Give the backbone structure.
Amino acid sequence: MSDSIQQHIGALGIVDVHEHHLPEITSCRQVNLLQLFQQSYAGWTQARPYPLPSESRAGDPMLAAAGPTTWEALAPYLENSGSSTFVRNLVRGVTELYGQGGVLTRGNWEALDAAVREHHGRPGWCGEVLRRAGIERVITDSYSDPLLDALEAFGNNYNSVLRINAFACGWHPESRDHNENSAHALLARLGCKPESFDDYLAALEKLVDSLASRHQVALKNALAYDRDLSFDEPDEPSARRAWGQVSPSPAERKAFGDLVVDRLCRLAGERDVPVQMHLGTALIRGSHPLNAAGLVERHPRTRFLLMHLAYPWSRELLAMAFVYRNIWLDLTWSLLLSPSHFKLALHEAIELLPDESRLMIGGDNWHVEETYATMRLARRLIGEVLAEKIADGYFGLDDARRLAGKILKENAAAFFGLSR
Ligand SMILES: [Zn+2]
């Protein structure tokens, strides 16, 4: 029975609802083995790519140029952080794609590095890897350019989402979000040059109305990397006081961001555009999912796709998804943080969620090798959970098959209107 559900899942196509495929990284033709580690979650074991409030940084270490691959450069990942799922997942993916028997050692790294460089030099290699992973469609959050038309950049099986962080930090032309994006620079590309706070609010409407022209299918709120997720009821006088200041007070910044996020969620609801939101980890003192409950509650017409099982607060998130029926769950990344917790949480999600439309999956990766590995892992873990459910007599093989098809593909296609 467990072979049967695993085989079924192995053959399903995937609509991947979240990647960070960026043209300058993912489509780069000069990629080596070290880059795959640096520009992946394995890289996060060495350097967290976002600063805490107490820290500063010169630039995003993931986007920095990588040097040539050496054993000395690989060893910190493999020998110091070799127990991390991030590292295990990438090693498995790279060795499956390029041979070398499932291990990466001092004895075979040069052969693997040569294979990575040779394959990335071939046009069409990235597409081939996605095909081998069974991925039919990709929705990417290309945060280095929130206005990216991914269909133009990557091909017609891609869409992008619009990351809204810069707009929630756009009180001054010089203000930037943690990705160094400026709202004013982005709006200038749409022909908007807001001179007042009211101009700025009007420009937000134009921003949302122009999504489809760039094949963008959702808004993405990744503000958990910039601030806390307590998006309170808009306080317009305080938000207006932030406008035009280089350095507004913390309360004015928060009010500005609260109002912009609230406005964007309302505009999205009116246009039936989904809103993805990062929950959990990040600036961890403020990323608890219940902080975002007020926002979800104020916008019952807005469809929220809440991400990462809000790790480590998956039970709180599942309870929210039971109470608020405008919540869907993107399981992305939670399986890479902890496969063991993912399985436990997926069991509970299956039992608790009000209907079968709520779960979707993504890779959340920069290079296709990691995407390939993550989707292999996702298929295996989902298959194991469904096999356990069948073995327990919770439901039958037909139920498990139906649910697997929905999690991997059908829910995402319907949620994002991809067949329209
Ligand atoms: Zn992500």
Remarks:
- The chain has a mean pLDDT of 96.
- The first helix runs from residue 2 to 11.
- Residues 30-122 form one domain.
- The first strand starts at residue 14 and ends at 19.
